[in-house]
Amino acid sequence: MFGISELAVVLIVVIAVLAAKKLPELARSAGKSARILKAEARAAKESDNRVTQEGEGTPQVVQGETVKRGEVPPDQRAAS
Question: Mean pLDDT throughout 31-59?
Answer without folding.
Answer: 81
